[in-house]
Amino acid sequence: MSDNGQDAPPERVVNTYNGWDPLEEVIVGTAFGATKPGHEPAFNAYVRSPQDRLSRAARRPAELIEAAEMQLDNLARVLEQEGVVVRRPTPTDFFTPVRTPTFEVAGQNASACPRDVLLVIGDQIVEATMGMRVRFFEYLPYRELVREYFNRGARWVAAPKPSMADEMYTADYSTQEVGFDADTHPSLTELEPCFDAASFARIGRDIFYQPDVVTNDFGARWLARHLGPEFRVHRARFKDPHPQHIDATMVPLRPGLVMMNPERPALDDTVELFTSNGWEVVEAVPSVSDTIPRPDEVSNWISMNVFNVDEETIICEEQEEPMIKMLETLGFRVIPLPFRDVYRFGGSFHCCTTDIRRRGGLKSYFPKLDG
């Protein structure tokens, strides 16, 4: 009870509906314990030569882990200076084998990218199924945090864990002659619900997903039914030979402004849905990785993987000068930070964070869909 005899409002432990409301609490990943995964069926879309299928799990070199962790620690410090509470996953050794009744792998992955594992919508945390065998148990480093959030009042649900049996993956899949197409050449079957959290973009009541090499339509249908009629889940398709996650293809920057990848045009009416509801659509600029060597783990559009502190403030890799200038032209205060050493662990600022609490409520940003 409050001093005036009224019930005090519940603490907002978990609260986020988009990627731009003022950030109050966030999880930043860690590179400690990371493993370079060996080949598995989920990687077939990326195979360039038969030799790729022979790759084996290996520990990441200590010097690469230390360099990445320094940049992740720096990101955490900067966010704290911006007034944000920063949490980190439990350090975990991923160079450990996994064996289940349906698959086995000699090593796992990492916990550098919490965005891929945890989907936060409103006051609930959804643990994604994950689409790769090496990431099956990647939720475990976050369990201590999620358990704490639950005990403080948040909702917590784990999506159905798929078997990841061979039948979940399209047999003998390849993109060497025919590029990925969710309708005619998918890498995943519809045997079971399957999704990574980073395949979804949250825009208030409307949530967009891209069926890709780790997310199928069954997974999106499960999420839509779980969330209920308060939310609208939209399928968006883009021309991409091997898509994985949506945050280097379509990036909402603030209400009314979305950044699209010009090399991956929409194959449906996604752009028209934005423009017909008053959104400005801007084309992203490619990464300087075209001229500066980059690891295979990220694309030349890693420049799009930015992270909002609020509607006016955004974090971008310090060497991505074309993207920084573009964002400044759009009216953002840009915080440039070094992050290239983190790329080989799976992504940039958006991948390596999961916003847990933002100051704001559920809104609709697509008024023509509200009738």
Automatic annotation (TrEMBL):
Coiled-coil zones: none
Extract the signal peptide range. none
Q: Which keywords appear in this protein's UniProt record, sorted alphabetically?
A: Transferase
InterPro entries from the xrefs? AmidinoTrfase
Tell me the superkingdom of the source: Bacteria
Q: Which family does it belong to?
A: Belongs to the amidinotransferase family.
Which protein is depicted?
A: Glycine amidinotransferase
